Every structure is written in structure tokens, then in C-alpha cells.
């Protein structure tokens, strides 16, 4: 029989003790990588990929309320393992020269509130998350991450709050200046009003009518050049310039109260054309490199 039930043995060993240890450790911590595939309903399929080892290894599950457990080696065979009790259930894998896969499902592990999916995840091993296809923009501990064409994220020694919204609402605000038009894209589940572009003061402003809602702006650099100063009701607030390409920058904020948001840039159209700023930046790099060719003693 491949599977060994260890719970009875542990009960005998600890029955004479006045205090019962809730965490039981027998084998060495497993050398493993965890893969988690999340679907659009908030369910997760978990795979612990455990490396071969000449010693016994112990794998603790992420949560006890799992279903559809499968334990197999990389060739599809059944390895020798023991089921370990305790507050957090685990499995002890005996010596093997093959990788072992422990798979199970966690139902409704990611929960939704006000349109935002959330999971407070804690697990000491490296974890790869594969997100639903519609979750292009995610938040890790409040920090926005643009997945772009990536399928997921890697988390090392993982303790994080994962948040995302499926099909996040995108609103386009068109700014007209002289003979040019610029599209400022805004992604949020909150309510935004009174969007304005103030060229002389180099700023974008708008009103937020909801608290603690993520707001992502995609701002054309030719319209408003970064770095930005972000104010909420006249006071500085936390912001994240987290992604950029040659033409746009992604700016993330999460106002903790309602009011007016102001985004003040370093320059605005047509104060310094984008090409001029790029040429100026290149010139600075050339000068720096020229200086670095020589050293003063």
C-alpha cells in the first residue's frame, strides 16, 4: 500500500503529553514550487511540484478545505507518502528519485467585494500565480502591476494581498489643445467627474466621489510629462508610476477620501515638445558618458 496513515501513530505518541502540538513536523521542508491557477469564479487549482530527494520531505497544504486531491509522480505513478494531521494538514513524501505533484482545488478562495477580487495569501514557498485572462491589471499589496501579455506573476516566499478586477471599466477623456487631440484613459470602478486639463498650470484634475477605489490613468507623455506630483484636496497623496512605453505612462492612485485630485506634471504641451525632451535627455547621457571616459586624480 503506497499511502501511509500517520494520524493514529501521532495520537499514541502524544496522548501522554499535557499539551498537544498543533503543528506536526516529521520530514524536512519540501524543496518545491507552487503553481496556482485561478479561474473567473474565484476557484484555485493548486499544484505543489516537489523535487526528488533521498530524504523524507513534508508538504503543508495552503488551506485544509481542499477537494479533488491527487498525488502522483512526474510519470503518473503513485509515490509513497503519509498524511500528517495537525492544524494545517500536510503530507510526508518518502525518498524518491522522481518529482512529485500534489494537486487539489480550493473553492471560492478568491472573494469579490464591490467588483474587486481579493485573496490574502500567505505561504512560505515560491508561488506562481496564473490569473484569469480578463485580469490584465492586478494589485499586489496595493501596488498596481500591468500584466500586459504576461500570464501571471511570481511571488517569492509569498505573503501578499492579491487584488484584481475582471474587465475593469475604462473611460477615455479626450483633451484638445490647439490642433492636437490626446486620449487620457482612466480605469476604475469608482465614480469620476469634472475632468479638466489645465495647460498653464501643467496639471490634470478631476473629482472622485468614492473612497478607497483604485484609479489607473494612462497619460500621454506628450500631453503631460512626468514625474508627477499628485494632490488630493490640496494635500500630497501616494501614487505609483508603474509602467511606461515610448508614448504613455501608467499612474495608479487610491484616494482614501472623496474630493479633487490634481496631477501636476514636469511640463505640458506645447511647452516642450516630446521630441525636444527626448533629445535633451539623450544629450545628457552623451555628456555623462563623455565625462566617464576620463577621471580626475
Architecture blueprint of SSEs:
Elements: E1 3-5, H1 7-14, E2 28-29, E3 32-38, E4 44-50, E5 57-60, E6 66-73, E7 81-84, E8 90-93, E9 100-106, E10 111-113, E11 116-122, E12 127-130, E13 137-140, E14 143-146, E15 152-155, E16 159-164, E17 170-177, E18 180-188, E19 192-198, E20 203-208, E21 215-220, E22 224-225, E23 229-232, E24 235-236, E25 239-244, E26 248-253, E27 259-264, E28 267-268, H2 274-292
Parallel strand pairs: 1-7, 2-5, 3-12
Antiparallel strand pairs: 3-4, 4-9, 5-8, 6-9, 7-8, 10-11, 11-16, 12-15, 13-14, 13-16, 17-18, 18-21, 19-20, 20-27, 21-26, 22-28, 23-24, 23-27, 25-26
In words, what does this structure look like?
The longest helix is centred in the last third of the chain and has 19 residues, at 274-292. This protein folds into 2 domains: 3-16 and 23-164, Sandwich (Immunoglobulin-like), CATH 2.60.40; 170-275. It has helices at 7-14, 274-292; strands at residues 3-5, 28-29, 32-38, 44-50, 57-60, 66-73, 81-84, 90-93, 100-106, 111-113, 116-122, 127-130, 137-140, 143-146, 152-155, 159-164, 170-177, 180-188, 192-198, 203-208, 215-220, 224-225, 229-232, 235-236, 239-244, 248-253, 259-264, 267-268. By secondary structure, the protein is mainly β. 24% of the residues are buried. The protein has a 6-stranded mixed β-sheet with strand order 6-9-4-3-12-15, with no helix packed on it. 9% of the residues lie in helices and 48% in strands. The chain starts with a strand and ends in a 5-residue tail after the last helix. Strand 25 and strand 26 (248-253) form a beta hairpin. It is built from 2 helices and 28 strands. The radius of gyration is 27 Å and the shape is elongated.
Amino acid at each position: 500500500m503506497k499511502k501511509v496513515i500517520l494520524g493514529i501513530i501521532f495520537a499514541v505518541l502524544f496522548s501522554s503529553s499535557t499539551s498537544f502540538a498543533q503543528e506536526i513536523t516529521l520530514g524536512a521542508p519540501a524543496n518545491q514550487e507552487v503553481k496556482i491557477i485561478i479561474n473567473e469564479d474565484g476557484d484555485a487549482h493548486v499544484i505543489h511540484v516537489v523535487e526528488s530527494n533521498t530524504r523524507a520531505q513534508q508538504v503543508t497544504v495552503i488551506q485544509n478545505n481542499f477537494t479533488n486531491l491527487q498525488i502522483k509522480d512526474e510519470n503518473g505513478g503513485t509515490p509513497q507518502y503519509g498524511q500528517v494531521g495537525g492544524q494545517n494538514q500536510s503530507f510526508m513524501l518518502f525518498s524518491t528519485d522522481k518529482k512529485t505533484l500534489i494537486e487539489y482545488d480550493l473553492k471560492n478562495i478568491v472573494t469579490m467585494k464591490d467588483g474587486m477580487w481579493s485573496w490574502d495569501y500567505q505561504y512560505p514557498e515560491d508561488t506562481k500565480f496564473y490569473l484569469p485572462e480578463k485580469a490584465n491589471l492586478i494589485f499586489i499589496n496595493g501596488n498596481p502591476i500591468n500584466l500586459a501579455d504576461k500570464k501571471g506573476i511570481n511571488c517569492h516566499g509569498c505573503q501578499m494581498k492579491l487584488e484584481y478586477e475582471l474587465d475593469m471599466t475604462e473611460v477615455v477623456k479626450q483633451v484638445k489643445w490647439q490642433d492636437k487631440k490626446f486620449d487620457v484613459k482612466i480605469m476604475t470602478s469608482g465614480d469620476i467627474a469634472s475632468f479638466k486639463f489645465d495647460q498653464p498650470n501643467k496639471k490634470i484634475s478631476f473629482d472622485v466621489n468614492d473612497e478607497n477605489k483604485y484609479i489607473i490613468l494612462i497619460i500621454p507623455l506628450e500631453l503631460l510629462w512626468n514625474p508627477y506630483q499628485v494632490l488630493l484636496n490640496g494635500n500630497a497623496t501616494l501614487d505609483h508610476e508603474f509602467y511606461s512605453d515610448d508614448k504613455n505612462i501608467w499612474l495608479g492612485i487610491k484616494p482614501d477620501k472623496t474630493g479633487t485630485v490634481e496631477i501636476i506634471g514636469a511640463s505640458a504641451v506645447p511647452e516642450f515638445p516630446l521630441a525636444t525632451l527626448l533629445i535633451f535627455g539623450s544629450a545628457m547621457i552623451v555628456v555623462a558618458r563623455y565625462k566617464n571616459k576620463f577621471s580626475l586624480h
